[in-house]
Specification:
- The strands form two sheets. A seven-stranded parallel beta sheet has the order 3-2-1-4-5-6-9, sandwiched between helices. Strands 7-8 form a two-stranded parallel ribbon.
- The protein has one domain: Rossmann fold.
- It is of the alpha/beta class.
- Strand 2, helix 3 and strand 3 form a beta-alpha-beta unit.
Amino acid sequence: MSLTAPSESTPLSHLFSLEGKVCLVTGGNRGIGLAVCQGYAEAGAAGIAIIHSSEATAELASERATEIQKKHPKTIVRIYRANVAIAKDIEDATKQVFSDFGRLDVVVANAGVYTETPALEMSSEEAQYVTGVNYFGPLYTAQAAARIFKENGGGKIIMTASINGHMVLRPQYESIYCATKAAVCHLTRALAVEFAQWNIQVNAISPGYIDTEMTTELVNKNPELIKAWMADCPAGRLCKVWELKGVYVFLASGASSYVTGADYVVDGGHTCH
């Protein structure tokens, strides 16, 4: 397998196609990750590997895989379990995906967790848990992907960061979450420079407030949050999760062959002021 830049004569419609590609998405069973998997199937991906975290998430992951497979019968969708905070877990899962599909082209480090615990009340265990998933997870996932890509002509690594990596949002407490997402933004740039020699592009996407299960849980606990968020968002609304499909497909496709080290902010203008 060799991932080469598209030629000048490649039709625009083909540039955005994922036909023949195999894509791995951590946290692909819900929220943003699920939308990414759906978008990749719509773009013609040959295979999608949904990485979920535990036995507790296996049933949901299986249901989501079946739904995508039924809607897109030409796309093979499989689920794999891995705790991204454990290097060997995600390494083994990534190797298994490559073995099962015979190739791997796109890896999305999307899995993440959130906490609102104030800094002075946060235990070391909670801080280590959030850091393990949100920072070391993307690092270990990128390492696993790059080891395969290096030997097979290149590939695409996409990190899910957050606007919280660019600014601190109020009124919720999220110090460790902000810190981990800021680290992911800079990790993306560092790996992009290091991995370019092997034709590996590394980019990030920093979503704003997205209408997902996690956001709903936060708002249900504190209805005042949505008012505060929208007061600072020029778009005046939450982003629908499907509105992220385009940017994830772009960064996975040949259309972004010369894009690396970038961080695409998708936030309705939230970080503009």
